[in-house]
Specification:
317 residues, alpha/beta, Rossmann fold, seven-stranded mixed β-sheet, four-stranded antiparallel β-sheet, 8 helices
């Protein structure tokens, strides 16, 4: 089978929303070429040695690549992708050069491309994410392994926004908690919550493809007894109250439903939010506080911010 590689030269800020657009357009996976990876201090506690080739990375900006099957609808799909990316300007997202190129690639080259970019990564005190094809031995008895196949869904779980969410879950989740994962994507946060001891996890995404992909990854990690995946828009039509809500999505979307999150949390419940570029940090923080949340902790990684917000034990009437 022949595949078409669509390559977008953009910015750090635009990685997550563009990746989501590509995923929703039927991409079989997303590769991110970020020059910051060349200077990043990688965690080598697993014995993994990272050897990256500078020739694979742009001189400036970030390249996001996706792979689409060559068929009669390809032209329309590419135009829809371009339109959706340009639409991100409405959310004040810096697209940088926003230069889009298309090239053809064979399936065997695609498989090789994936494996070059995706290795086991220890992302928190207890959680390590590994690709399904890698053999990996636990370093400690309490280490938790999440297996992901990048071909199943967008996101490898190692982007700073996801890493901070998982680190926040590790700090905030108490075994037995009832959890909601808003905008689950690949399902990695729901899997992490289940492995950390959540009694139930409701994983939701508006995109039907994401829902199917999350179910596959959840089954792969044997978490289907705890995690229920369904198609849903944010917290619409959700009843009851939960111990913890996690959302790794755009800052603008977080501010659209933080009042609902407050309503659906038990007193003392936690709201973990990520996907926030530094320039939107104060705006999101103020919105959370305006809707009654106390900011318990702020996490920072590269150009990204995450918050652990808490609903007070006693809510003023």
């Amino acid at each position: 089978m022949k595949w078409s590689e669509i390559s977008i030269l953009t910015t750090q800020e635009a990685i997550e929303p563009i990746s989501n657009i590509l995923h929703e357009s039927g991409a079989s996976g997303v590769v991110i070429e970020d020059p910051q990876d060349l200077v990043k201090v990688w965690d080598t506690s697993m014995g993994e040695i990272y050897q990256l080739n500078p020739d694979d990375y742009p001189d400036e900006g970030v390249v996001v690549k996706a792979y689409l099957p060559v068929n009669s609808f390809l032209g329309e799909t590419v135009e829809e992708i371009k339109e959706a990316i340009n639409g991100l300007l409405l959310y004040d997202i810096d697209l940088g050069h926003n230069r889009i190129t298309i090239s053809e690639i064979h399936e065997e080259e695609w498989a090789t491309a994936w494996k070059k970019y995706y290795k086991p990564v220890k992302i928190s005190e207890r959680i390590t994410i590994i690709p399904t094809w890698e053999e990996y031995e636990k370093v400690s008895t309490d280490e938790l392994i999440i297996e992901l196949d990048p071909g199943m869904a967008f996101g490898t779980g190692t982007h700073p926004t996801t890493v901070m969410c998982i680190q926040a879950l590790e700090k905030s989740l108490t075994p037995g908690d009832e959890v909601i994962d808003v905008g689950t994507g690949s399902g990695v946060l729901s899997i992490a919550a289940a492995k950390l001891g959540a009694s139930t996890v409701t994983a939701m995404d508006l995109d039907e493809i994401a829902v199917k992909s999350a179910r596959l990854n959840i089954k792969l990690n044997k978490c289907q007894e705890q995690v229920n995946v369904k198609q849903n828009n944010l917290l619409d039509n959700i009843e009851g109250q939960y111990d913890l809500i996690v959302a790794n999505i755009l800052a603008e979307i977080i501010m659209r439903f933080d009042d609902q999150a407050f309503e659906h949390l038990k007193p003392g419940g936690k709201f973990i939010v990520s996907g926030i570029i530094k320039g939107k940090k104060d705006e999101v923080k103020q919105s959370l506080m305006n809707h009654g949340f106390e900011i318990q902790e702020t996490l920072l990684m590269e150009d990204w911010v995450a918050f652990i917000a808490k609903k007070p034990e006693q809510v003023m009437a």
